[in-house]
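Practice problem 4.
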């Protein structure tokens, strides 16, 4: 099986071109094996680039533990780069399907190769039941949305410690908490506990965010099914939304991640979140299954 390794702000995945070869068998097992950083290629997961009847390509994503995921913001930028640079669709504007949705992307190129991608991530999902989470917003802060409510600045007790959280879905679930310092102890201990907390029936990604200014934050993410990653694109989008909803940030922010920076905006006119950042191809190779 031919593969290409790529990363967006350090969030690295193994990509398989299913235009040129068949979809691999036993995908969950392949994702676990190839993602292993000691016995495999090493990555945060596996992404298949597949033909689509409705878009230029479809992204199918699997976490490092083999579980499927609905969306990956850094991953989809790399899919756009691969689709353009490898001649599948040589266009400056692309549409990529993922998780039943179609995402529009604007590509910035240099020397004929994509360097930056701006993704229209669509509208954030704020209704608790659709995120999904069973946390209920405080009466003074919850805004009714049909039978559900927004979860904004809601206390969540983990390991005897209360965390103030805001929950957002960007096609996948996120739990955002603003902290004074995102320490290893906090991210690596509270992260997996929040991910698997009973208030999140599908588990959740967890963002620990340091507020630097109303336009600038620093983010560390514990990703569902992968552990801490260098960056999380959908997480950065969730942070942009959560920061504004909780009164901490403006609608347009820079998010500093361990692997680099992303530019985010939650547009007041159409309610869409846009994310801009790099996409990098590292190397290609051949995986020989046992």
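Answer key:
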């Amino acid at each position: 099986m031919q593969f290409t390794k790529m990363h967006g702000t350090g969030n690295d995945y193994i990509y398989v071109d299913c235009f040129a070869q068949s979809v691999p068998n036993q995908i969950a097992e392949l994702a676990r094996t190839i993602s292993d950083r000691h016995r495999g290629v090493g990555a945060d997961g596996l992404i298949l680039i597949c033909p689509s009847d409705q878009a230029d390509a479809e992204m199918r994503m699997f976490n490092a533990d083999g579980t499927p995921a609905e969306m990956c913001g850094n991953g989809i930028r790399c899919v756009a780069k691969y689709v353009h640079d490898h001649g599948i669709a040589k266009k400056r504007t692309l549409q990529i399907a993922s998780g039943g949705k179609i995402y529009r992307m604007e590509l910035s190129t240099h020397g004929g190769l994509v360097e930056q991608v701006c993704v229209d991530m669509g509208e954030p999902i704020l209704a608790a039941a659709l995120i999904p989470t069973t946390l209920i917003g405080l009466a003074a802060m919850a805004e009714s949305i049909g039978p559900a409510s927004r979860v904004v600045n809601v206390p969540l007790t983990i390991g005897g410690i209360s965390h103030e959280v805001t929950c957002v879905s960007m096609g996948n679930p996120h739990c955002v908490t603003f902290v004074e310092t995102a320490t290893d102890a906090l991210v690596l201990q509270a992260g997996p506990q929040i991910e698997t907390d009973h208030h999140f029936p599908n588990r959740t990604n967890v963002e620990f965010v340091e507020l630097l200014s109303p336009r600038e934050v620093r983010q560390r993410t514990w990703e569902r099914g992968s552990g801490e990653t260098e960056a999380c694109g959908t997480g950065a989008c969730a942070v942009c939304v959560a920061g504004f909803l909780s009164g901490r940030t403006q609608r347009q922010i820079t998010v500093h991640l361990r692997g680099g920076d992303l530019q985010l905006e939650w547009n007041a006119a159409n309610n869409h979140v846009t994310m801009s950042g790099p996409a990098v191809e590292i190397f290609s190779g051949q995986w020989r299954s046992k």
